[in-house]
Amino acid sequence: MKTQLSRRTFLQGCTGFAAAAALRGFGITNLRFDADQLSTVHAAPLHAPQQPPANRDLLVLVFVRGGLDGLNLVVPFNTSNADRQRYYTTLRPTLSVPAPNANATRKAVDLDGRFGLHPDAARGASGVATPNGHASDNGGLYALFQRGDLAIVEACGSPDITGSHFDTELYVDLGGKQNQGGWLARYLDAVGEPHDALAVAPQWGVPPSLLSQSGRSAVAVPDPEHFGPQWRTREWTAHEEAAALIAAQRALLEPMYQRGGDFIEAVGQSALQNYDMLRHVLETTYTPAAAYLTDDSHVADYGSFGHSLQTVAQIAKSSLSNPLRVATIDVGGGYDTHDNQGLLDWNGNSRYPRLITNLANNIKAFCDDMNADPAWRGRFVVVVLSEFGRVLYQNDSGGTDHGAGNVMLVAGSHGNIRGGAIYGEWPGLTNFGFNDGLHITTDYRRPLADILTARMGVGVDQINAAIFPGLGYTTGLGIGVTR
Amino acid sequence: MMTALTPSTPPGAAPSLARLAYNRMGFGPRPEDLPGMDAFDLTAFVDAQLAVEGINDDACDAAIASLDRTDPQGLLTPPPSASLAELETYRAASQAAGGWPNGNLQRHLWTVTYTRALLSKRQLFEVMVDFWTNHLQTNFQSPLKYWEDYHVIRQHALGNFRDLLGASAKSPSMLHFLSNTYSDGANPNENYARELMELHTLGSYSRVPGAGFLTKPNYSETDVHIAAQILSGWTTMGAPDRAYRFNAGRIWPSHHWQEKQLWLGGDQPIFFPYGGEEQGEQLLDILAEHPSTAYFLAFKLCRRFISDFPDTFCPDAIESGAQAFLTSHGDIRATVRAILLHPKFAASWGQKIKRPFEYFVGVLRALGVTEMINFLPDDWDDALGARFFEQQIEMLGQKLFDFSAPTGLPDVRFAWWNSNQVFGRWNLVNALVSRYFGDQTATDAAPANAALDALIAAPATAQAVIDRLLDHCVGRAIAADDRSALIDYLGAGNAQAIITSTSPRVRAVIAAIAASPYAQWR
């Protein structure tokens, strides 16, 4: 009941549709169920501790919804004299991250002499000024890059790009606009996973990347208050009473889902099974091995992303009869930075610093958390992508509009990827691509295919025939280390 | 791998043709529809539904007229028939009062649309409104959608396709949604021209059966560019209240005022003589009459009414619809009639499932509810108020007039059935039962409720109540074991136990039936 009240208080604080939108991306808020809430529902049987999939890694897809400004995350401070002049003087006179050698407290952190990371992607790293400190400031993406666990692909994007978030996001989720279902679902088909293989979106709703045409059903795990069947009344209903009524309904419904093996019934069965399994996981208290970042004082998404990543780690490390195969998380909180996006300031307009801190600290926390479990070392890959980057130049409102090419991040573990390097052909800043954004030189599906073939148990033929039909994939960028 | 793509044979018996018709051509039967089903005649039913002007809908109209239109700031939202000027007046007033006019108008339009789906006797008309709303998708980026719903979609939903297409092309909401309002001849914005051909009329590839089916492009990139030039000047810019006008006053470069030609996948160019707005009208004429348009629309209508996979399940019904469209020059009634009376319609059980909108309204209709939730008030404090149900709808993913892709929402089952839907629909009906029949907060006690007593014809035996509820909510025989389990639960082991609204198991059992897999089929 406590969570219910706090939820309503939160919603009252939002106005109109913003509340609904916030709700959709809200994700997990509290991983613990009230102890008495589900006590009457039978628990799923326990199995041996989960091992990673036998011949492949766990793939975690992070989709930054809204259009990440990759140019200020991975800063081209020295790609050429012309670029430097363009970035600092012409394109982004007041919205550029100072070069690593600049005389400034907050400035880019050098990666390879050409590109530097936004300092909020390197919080806690030695020599990096880190205002508004937090326990999760453990070097962020910079630490991952330094130890070879982060690959950056520059100028990535979709050939189906339009100026619309929704269209481009959808086309990316589908792995090409001509496809009817999601590419992650097709991957699970191609690799021969059983129909009820566990694919989780630790948030509201299943993203289209997991929409399946073959009848497999991904599980959206929103906060426990909204996970699974509920008895809803205006007046207060005690947990025990509600649970008993739900259990009675379930006893009636469960045999009905076993009457046929068709789509409706098969999905219903796996929904109930996965619910039992995951509820059992989420009921237990999880103590992560690294600090995630969920504080409102540092992030703009109510802590959704940190909670969601932590949930993925919790599920991955749990004892499940049906182990986790893929997970996908949507990140929001204001990446569509058309105005007043902010740059480096934590005392005034800290929007962009918060967005980057949220991404960087939590991805680092997830990697550390997973690496702390010997079973998962070298066995997971996190891919971060966004539908498009921003326009190369700042607009009159201190923001950036919808652009094109963008960075893609690939985080790995213990040598399963060739990190510490920047991949892709850098197109330069001297001419404009689509929508006046960065030219797209690498189809986003190529690095994905690279990871899938090297680490996820599918071959090139499956990429071209099933997962990304029409891509014509031959070789990747060499990011994934072949198993 | 192909489970979802193969025709289904749902467990339990097939429904009667009458049931199928009420589910597919409307939002499911209401209790008062059930007695008439014995003497059902499909042709007579379809013709009566298509003769929409002859259907007396006074009761529904009265319910709409009596809706409280007071917005959260205390202003009165204009009625759906409002003019652009009235909408602009409201928008300004709402904004000045710190409100969100687009959101308020969208919420009122939900209430109106849900109310019509719940109560209107013009059920097929309401389904067609939903069909065209998605086929010619725009959304509440601006209040103009509100005007479009009444003046474009509802005006022509069962009229002539060319009229509908023309009204849509000049609809301010469409002009904004697909950017044509900003397009000028020198450097035209191709957004609308492309979607006009790809989504509204021809389809990307030929849909005409035979060689080239789904392989021969219907237009080239050059065609898109030229079509955009032809349509430049169709704008709202500079017009009062953002109404449509052809902007001949702006200094259009000579690009517009010259002869043009399109190929549209043919061997001969189609010439567009020197002109202004009439070039665009000519383009719409050609697109509306194009055979691929006829087959594309027939395909989509078959997908709505008959099967998720019409190309394989009912190509002959597509053919019938397309021929009716072509010979009638775009008469929507004739096209719909040919499809609904094609034998494949009657043979299509198991081909469609309910989407969340149909499900939500269908449950309420089955339960005999006559009052729709008013989505407009800002009632966060009400645990089962408008905002709660708005969240449920949002979770289920079919928020009307909201979708931002010009494709409209998907119309195939894989988009609408997953673990979220399993639990979301279950939670929704639990909430609806509480909302309409009163809270049950304990396992052993429940409040008396007149509407619920009427629904189950209380007092009645557990067996009679279950059979009645199954008739209302499912409408066909379910597996015998499932039926006896429901009776057993409701009567606590005694099929003859007397049940009323105060029976502590009746609410749970109603919701279980409504949430059951049996009730998901359309």
Characterise this structure.
The complex is a heterodimer of chains A (483) and B (522). With 483 residues, chain A is an alpha/beta fold. Chain A contains 12 helices and 12 strands. Chain A has helices at 2-13, 16-24, 81-91, 140-146, 165-174, 183-190, 239-257, 263-283, 304-317, 351-371, 445-455, 460-467, and strands at 58-64, 74-75, 109-110, 116-117, 150-157, 198-201, 219-220, 324-331, 380-386, 406-411, 421-423, 442-443. In chain A, β3 and β4 (116-117) form a beta hairpin. The longest helix of chain A is centred in the middle third of the chain and has 21 residues, at 263-283. Chain A is globular and about 70 Å long. Chain B is 49% helix and 3% strand. In chain B, the strands form 3 sheets. Chain B has a two-stranded antiparallel ribbon with strand order 1-2. In chain B, strands 3-4 form a two-stranded antiparallel sheet. Chain B has helices spanning 17-24, 42-50, 58-65, 84-96, 101-119, 123-135, 144-156, 161-169, 172-177, 191-200, 221-231, 277-289, 291-305, 310-313, 315-327, 332-340, 343-346, 356-366, 386-396, 419-437, 450-456, 462-473, 480-490, 506-515; strands at residues 234-235, 245-246, 260-262, 270-272, 460-461, 498-499. Chain B has 522 residues and is mainly α. At the A-B interface, α1, α2, α5, β7 and α7 of A face α19, α20, α23 and α24 of B.
Biggest chain pair interface: A-B, 70 and 67 residues
From the alpha carbons, calculate the radius of gyration of chain B and give it in angstroms.
25 Å
How many strand units of chain A?
Answer: 12
The computed structural class of chain B is: mainly alpha
Low-confidence stretches of chain A: 1-49
What is the terminal separation of chain B in angstroms?
A: 23 Å
Overall average residue pLDDT of chain A: 86
